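Q: Mind making up any chain with structure tokens?
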Amino acid sequence: EVQLMESGGGSVQAGGSLRLSCAASEFTFSTSCMRWFRQPPGKGREGIASITSGGTTTYRDSVEGRFTISRDNAKNTLYLQMNNLKPEDTAMYYCSAGPFDPSCRSSPDYWGRGTQVTVSS
């Protein structure tokens, strides 16, 4: 059974940092397009960062320069380093895995259950 398990969420003050992790198992992590999404309270889910199997990254404008997505294929783990957090970053954060895709735009095949990030002003 494919598993994606997020961790590292929590409550921080504005300007603080958090590092999210997503441990993956039972699929070929190294060739998968990996992405982070988030769902703010009362809003829809939005993609915020992606990383291809080759390490190419893309970011949503609102997190560009503050968030860094990375992957460790040896550990089957995806990361999201979040710096200079803002109250508007408050959301449930999800990792996802999709098929091999040079542009990393394919719809995800698998989702984690999420980890909550709360940023207070």
